Amino acid sequence: MQKIVIEGGVPLHGEVQISGAKNAVLPILCATLLADGPVEIGNVPHLHDVVTTAKLLGELGAGITIDEGTIEFDGRRRKGSGIVVDPRSVRSHIAPYELVKTMRASILVLGPLLAKYGAAEVSLPGGCAIGSRPVDLHIKAMQALGAEVTVEHGFIKASAARLRGAVVRFDVVSVGATENALMAASLAAGTTVIENAALEPEIVDLADCLIALGADIEGAGTSQIVIRGVERLRGGTHSVLPDRIETGTFLVAAAMTGGRITTLKSRPDTLHAVLELLQETGAVIETQDDRITLDMRGRRPRAVSFSTAPHPAFPTDMQAQFMAMNCIADGVGTIAETIFENRFMHVQELQRLGADIHIDGHTATVHGIAQLSGAPVMATDLRASASLVLAGLVAEGETIIDRIYHLDRGYENIEEKLSGLGARIRRVSA
Ligand code: EPZ
């Protein structure tokens, strides 16, 4: 079991390169199943969830080539790791429990398998630390597109001779269900209108990839997406957009430690709500088209209050990181988590570091203290583990974080990147 050990107290300085977005590359990998030729994906982050998804595609029979170094796309060879998926050898349409139970995003093969092969059997993903994570909206979307869907023995079983275009209206905004509907509708007969669609930038990136393969999609990034189904999607190439949550996590690290950093290969336009809240803490922020500089030298963050909500509002995936900042901020901040029912698992671990946090239902009230004190803590889910790393960067003494496999699901080489900014952080095998 590996652990991360951090010696707190170093203000971060320098530049850090942002990797491709986890929450874009996962649906995009699933979308390759829709094509009838190889699909080359660039700027792929080295994440455990990417390996799991590649394994799942391999299980289905697709050919997978991991291309370290450079890949060719847009007529240019570019540095950056790539994956080529060749779906022409797909033979199975069953996503097994052994893989699905480790990553709920596996549900995103449902729409592509159904649209391309007329059948899909996907294990129910089950819950996870942050909530029950139901998939009813995914199932309703497939049924709206004409699929027969049953749920039995822990599996979703879906079939359709040919999906047909329809109005798919979501009562609850769902990123994953919007993505499944978008992918399935791309090959359906006729026109589909997705209403109350999620607006996340990762959905726009997925749509851009599908359009590069020949899909006819308008409105991605708005609450109404119109998809005119086509007969087939060809092979092609796409480069994944930068990860806005990784970007936000590093910016919070700089704000908490009183440093100054620049994130490179990032997209300021995808995290306005995060940048605005960082400015409320007193951070000075300058942006250019592919970089963000945050300066908090010599200053302690002011406490901030916020509520998570679907994009473009403040993202739930940044809640734990801002809670860590509130722990050492000047003042009292209240945090309302409105998306997931149990996304405060990091609270008790932050309290072990001395944080003064009180939870009342879905709201946490954080009284900032001058300094946290290092201690052994345990990661429980991906973004909770990020908040513990952030807390360790400012805690007095040594913080040891256990179960960091959670961290490796969503952050590429985080200790190398933080070390490059001056942090005293190392990974040890315990
Ligand atoms: C995506 O999860 C992200 N994961 C999550 O990131 C992110 O927190 C979430 O969107 C919200 O932005 C990926 O993109 C791989 P939802 P997803 O469907 O699609 C309820 C991270 O840390 N719901 O938008 O699963 C659900 O319970 C991860 O990177 C239903 O009720 O989220 C939640 O309350 C964590 N029925 C709300 O909708 C459904 O069928 C929003 O969930 C589906 C969802």
Question: Can you describe this structure?
Answer:
With 430 residues, this protein is of the alpha+beta class. The protein contains 14 helices and 26 strands. The protein has helices at 22-31, 48-60, 97-100, 110-117, 136-144, 175-186, 201-212, 244-257, 272-280, 319-327, 345-352, 382-394, 405-408, 414-419, and strands at 2-7, 13-17, 39-42, 63-67, 70-73, 76-79, 82-86, 94-95, 119-123, 148-152, 155-159, 167-169, 191-195, 216-218, 224-228, 236-239, 260-264, 284-288, 291-295, 306-307, 332-336, 356-360, 363-367, 376-378, 398-402, 424-429. The chain has a four-stranded mixed beta sheet with strand order 24-25-1-26. Strands 2-17-19-18 form a four-stranded mixed beta sheet, covered by helices on one side. A four-stranded mixed beta sheet has the order 4-7-3-16. The chain is elongated and about 65 Å long. It starts with a strand and ends with a strand. The structure holds ligand EPZ. Ligand EPZ is lined by residues 22-23, 26, 105, 131, 133-138, 172, 174-177, 198, 316-317, 339-340, 382-383, 410.
